[in-house]
From TrEMBL:
It comes from marine sediment metagenome. This is Ribosomal RNA adenine methylase transferase N-terminal domain-containing protein. SUPFAM superfamilies: S-adenosyl-L-methionine-dependent methyltransferases. One of its GO terms (molecular function) is rRNA (adenine-N6,N6-)-dimethyltransferase activity. GO terms for cellular component: cytosol. Keywords: Methyltransferase, RNA-binding, S-adenosyl-L-methionine, Transferase.
Length: 202
């Protein structure tokens, strides 16, 4: 490509591992993302204080989870994490049979843009890392109520000194405390992560 476009001064080519590369600031990403590292690439590009717009070709099942904020069966880790930073705009299903060779999965073209306002908690490095770990830790328990899911997360993270009663008393008076994790909105899960961060680290 360097030889093919030698005179294009506005074109910069990088032959690097995307997960290790120091990517310069950019306004939009247009990409056919490798299926096996979709989550890692999305996290690197979009989960930050100034994410770009995106036009992405990804596995259809992942696209459905990104767009399905109100469907229990598809409500997942990537649903919460992605929608905390980005706003899904449009999704177009693309049949696998439009490609040669034919992949084993159907694809989707999605258009996404940064949220108008990203929660301040997610803009600090330590807090953002905690939030992503928090989401990964509670989503396996999405069918449990908030206190039960949080007590399992806290225990798994090595904070055994906090019992289920401790967590309940700490959150007592908080709305949605009796709901299941999957019944919460994305912003409510962000707020929950802030509360648990304060409990564990303050």
């Amino acid at each position: 490509l360097t030889k093919k476009f030698p005179k294009n001064k506005n074109l910069m080519l990088y032959n690097e591992d995307i997960l290790k590369a120091n990517i310069p600031h950019h306004n939009i990403v247009i990409s056919n993302i490798p299926y096996s590292i979709t989550g890692a690439i999305i996290e690197k590009i979009f989960y930050n204080e100034n994410p770009p717009r995106g036009v992405l070709l990804i596995e259809e099942s992942i696209a459905e989870r990104i767009f399905s904020k109100n469907e229990y069966k598809k409500f997942s880790r990537i649903t919460v994490s992605f929608n905390a930073f980005m706003e899904p705009v449009k999704k177009y299903k693309i049949s696998r049979f439009n490609f040669i060779p034919t992949p084993k999965i159907d694809l989707a073209l999605i258009i996404v843009k940064p949220k108008d306002e990203i929660d301040q908690f997610l803009l600090e490095d330590k807090e953002r890392k905690f939030f992503l770990k928090f989401v990964a830790g509670i989503m396996p328990y999405k069918n449990k109520n908030v206190v039960n899911a949080l007590s399992l997360f806290v225990k798994n993270e090595g904070f055994g000194k906090f019992s289920k009663n401790d967590i309940y008393n700490y959150l007592n008076g908080t709305k949605n405390i009796d709901k299941k994790i999957a019944q919460l909105k994305v912003d409510e899960i962000v707020d929950l992560s802030k509360s648990i961060f304060k409990l564990l680290y303050n």
